[in-house]
């Protein structure tokens, strides 16, 4: 695995991605888009998956703009909708800068929204799409877990982060070690002022949000697999049912005994689903 800083031009300025890579350039490219949350990074979402799949694909897992060691704009757009528009533009610039003519997209939660924004803007650039517990479905209830995530900085602490991440999984007991490790990794970011500033911009209560209409989704002709944990306490499984019903070439796979962290709770199943999608077996 390698990590490097890659600069892109967006809206007349420059932003920098911290990009984590496995595999060989020239292999089929897969862009892994992480979700939101305090201290989230590309590796905290995807390290196991991109390590396992590196022998097969060129795996790209950036820290999104406003997360981790990527740029944190001082004048970031307020609200998840406008900020995600900027993130999607930056991701498209990243893909172009890497010289890719086609890339498969894997989006977790907020990352699913980014995958959809990228696809709507540049459908020619996108191959297959896996949406995992994706946000962006309209009229979904705001879960207590999502409220905790949005309001985390009202009282930030390692204990609060551990409580939040415990809501991401179905069965806490086998995941305690993983959660403790992720908490330790993320707290180094949580305590940074630039990370807090980006979080508060994303979740500004007065900022705009973005959902996707059936009419928009009907224009997406790509093969899409919607994956969701049946027991997700952050984003309800009905969100993926909505996407699967509205996108013409979409299928839905619901995992039992699984929460919001499909790729971490059931990594082998997740890898089989992703490779099956790319290979045309699903």
Automatic annotation (TrEMBL):
Residue span, AB hydrolase-1 domain: 29-267
SUPFAM superfamilies given in the database record: alpha/beta-Hydrolases
Keywords from the UniProt entry: Hydrolase
Pfam families, alphabetized: Abhydrolase_1 (PF00561)
Record GO terms (molecular function): hydrolase activity
GO CC annotation terms, alphabetical: membrane
InterPro entries membership: AB_hydrolase_1, AB_hydrolase_fold, AB_hydrolase_sf
Name of this protein: Alpha/beta fold hydrolase
Natural source organism: Actinomadura montaniterrae
């Amino acid at each position: 695995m390698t990590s490097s800083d890659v600069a892109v031009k967006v809206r007349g300025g420059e932003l920098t991605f911290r990009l984590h890579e496995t595999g060989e350039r020239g292999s089929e490219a897969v862009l892994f888009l992480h979700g939101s949350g305090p201290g989230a990074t590309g590796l905290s979402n995807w390290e196991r998956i991109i390590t396992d799949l590196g022998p097969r694909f060129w795996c790209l897992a950036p820290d999104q703009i406003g997360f981790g060691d990527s740029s944190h704009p001082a004048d970031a757009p307020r609200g998840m909708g406008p900020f995600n528009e900027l993130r999607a533009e930056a991701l498209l610039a990243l893909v172009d800068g890497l010289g890719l003519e086609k890339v498969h997209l894997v989006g977790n939660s907020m990352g699913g929204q980014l995958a959809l924004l990228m696809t709507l803007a540049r459908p020619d650039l996108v191959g297959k799409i896996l949406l995992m517990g994706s946000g962006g479905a309209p009229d979904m209830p705001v879960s207590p877990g999502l409220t905790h995530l949005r309001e985390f900085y009202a009282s930030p602490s390692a204990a609060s982060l551990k409580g939040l991440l415990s809501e991401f999984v179905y069965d806490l007991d086998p995941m305690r070690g993983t959660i403790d490790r992720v908490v330790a990794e993320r707290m180094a970011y949580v305590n940074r002022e630039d990370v807090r500033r980006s979080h508060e911009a994303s979740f500004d209560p007065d900022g705009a949000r973005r959902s996707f209409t059936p009419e928009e989704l009907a224009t997406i002709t790509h093969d899409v697999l919607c994956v969701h944990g049946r027991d997700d306490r952050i984003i309800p499984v009905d969100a993926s049912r909505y996407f699967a019903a509205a996108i013409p070439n979409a299928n839905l796979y619901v995992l039992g005994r699984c929460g919001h962290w499909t790729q971490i709770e059931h990594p082998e199943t997740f890898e089989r689903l992703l490779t099956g999608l790319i290979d045309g077996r699903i």
